[in-house]
Every structure is written in structure tokens, then in C-alpha cells.
Amino acid sequence: MSISEKLINDLIVANVEFVTTVPCKQLADVIEKIEQSTQIQHVPSNKEDEGMGLCAGAYLGGKRSCIIMQNTALGVTINALTTLIQYYNIPLPMLISYRGEVGEKVACQVEMAIHTKCLLQQLGIQTYHFHNQEDADEFPGILNHTYMSRKPTAILTDSNFWGVKK
Amino acid sequence: MIRSEIIKSIAPVISNELVVCNIGLPSQELYMIDDQPSNFYMLGTMGLASSIGFGLALAQTQKVIAIDGDGSVLTNLGTLPTIANHAADNFILLIIDNGSYGSTGDQPTYAGKKTSLTGVARECGCENVVECKAEDARSTLEAALSSNKKTIIVCKCDSGNIPVGVIGLDPGVIRHRFMEEVTARN
Predict the structure, then answer these.
(1) Chain segment B120-130, per-residue pLDDT in tens
(2) Which of A96, B18, B89, B90 has the most beta carbons within 10 angstroms of its beta carbon?
(3) How far apart are CA A111 and CA B82, in angstroms?
(4) How many domains does chain A have?
(5) What structural domains and CATH numbers belong to chain B?
(6) A56/B179 CB distance under 8 A
(7) B43 interface with A at CB cutoff 8 Å
(8) What is the pLDDT of residues A89-129, one digit of tens each?
(9) Where in the sequence is the domain holding A93, given as residue range(s)?
(10) Beta B151-156 vs B91-97: how paired, if at all?
């Protein structure tokens, strides 16, 4: 089973039925397989705050939801995270490609990487960092923890995790 | 007619439906006119009423009416292609288009100038887009509900506000009672 298949399988086992995505090169395979999945409703969004609205609505409708996005999205979602997801106690796992770490080829990506963990810490968001593929063994537990606590969680997945050549 | 008069006129029609209502005065007016557990009031996050409503419509079977404003739709224009490209005949987006940012002091929006949200919605691929006058809001909404088709209503009205208090409900309470309603109806 590929790492993408493992993550999607974990989502299905955790009863996540609604996933929205905004593309990132590192996430291309997982997004393609989400689209192919018959057990997950995939609604791509045009911007990540829109996606958080969709996820909040799906949760209100009784479906566990998840957003898959790049860490640059933190720059456009702080209001949605604080005044919607956190304010209304809506659980939301955020599977995030952690661009701008060692191995990155696009210098501009480093700018948001520098701020990623500080922003998450400032927002009081529970944050997990997957550097090696075995770190994803914790993914099912993180998903359950997210829904139990009714809070957002950030799962940062860096280039080493996705097997990008350095 | 101004927005509060539209909300008053449609209250009997939406009273028993799941409603996601836009931030600021629209939610405050709906709360004052006809508070129901089936109303989800947005207390923040300008622009996301249509997205929350659409996510809700996709996730369950009951009809959903998202009450939005022209300024808020302009803030989240990406919502219209998403709505257009996914099937959800239980979804109605009612855009109360008064051509202004009502909650912040009636500053003009581009929807009150050259930009037509009706045209934008159609070009985004939305199929049932109806523009109506404020006086016809109720009948247009009733027709949309009985059509069982995903519908975007752009209701043109005058700019203006009435004095209205803040919503005294805790966000957790709004969410909890709304979700209990959703569960009971599905």
C-alpha cells in the first residue's frame, strides 16, 4: 500500500466521508486517489477558507470532514479557523503539505515554512509533524483525537515524508 | 424594500427549513424576526455562508437555504463554481443584493455598480439562476423550494438597516441545537 493509499484508508476507517482539497505538487497523488475513492465525497475548493466553510457545513450535516491543503494556506485561513472552526467547536483535521522544508526547490516556499509552526502555535492548534512515513502510524489516532476534542488539528507532511529527492 | 423587510416576508417560508444565515445584520434580523433551532447564525467569517450551506446540503438530504449578501458573495466568489459543479438539488442560495455592505455602514459594493451577480453565477455554470425584485422574494423562494432544483436567487433590494440587537446565543449552542435539528430531520 502506498503512503497515499494508507492515509486515505485511515480516513475511511475513521468515517471521514467528506474531503475538500486545494492542490499542491506534493499532494498530487493523494488528491488523485481521493477523487477515485467511492467512499469519500471529494469537493475541491478554490481557496482554503472556502474549503473550511464546506467542511464546517458537512460536519453540521453529520459527516466527518477533512481538508487537504498546503501550508501557504495558513496565510488565508486564519479568520476561518478562529471565527468558524474554533469558535463553533468544529473538528477539522488539516492534512497539510509542509512546503519550504529541507529539499525544497522553490525559494519562496521557505517564507511560509518559517512561519508555519509559529502560526499554528499562536492559534492554539494541535500540531503533528510527519517526517518519516512510519510517523503516519499515528494518523488514525490523530483523526480520532480531532473528532473527540472537536478542534482543528494540523498534520504537517514534509518533503522527506513524501519521498521527494533532496 | 430593504433586507429586513425581505427577511420578514420570507420568514413563514423558511421557518421550517434548514437555514444558514450570513454574518452581521442578516443573522441579527433573522434572530429577532424568527429564531429557530433550524437557523445557523454566522457570528463571524464573512463570505462563508454559501460554502457552509452548500457543504451541509451535500452531506444530508434535507433542503438548505443559505441567506447571503452581495458583499459576502463578492468576498468568496470562488463559491459559485463549486456550487455549479456539484449536484445538490436540495440547495438554495438566496443572495439579498442591496448593492452595499449593510453591516458596516452601507458602503457601496461592485454588485450595485457594473457587476451582475446573476450574470456571474450563470457564467460560473449555475443552471437555475433567478433574479427577482424584493417584492417577489417570497414567491420566488417558494417556487425554488417546490422545484426541487438547486437554485440561485439574486434578490435586488434597497440599501438600509433597522436597529437590531446582537445575538445572545453562544456559538456552541447555535451549533448544537442546529445539529440536533439536522439529525432529527434526516
Answers:
(1) 999 999 999 99
(2) A96
(3) 30
(4) 1
(5) 3-11+18-185 (3.40.50.970)
(6) no
(7) yes
(8) 999 999 999 999 999 999 999 999 999 999 999 999 999 99
(9) 3-158
(10) parallel
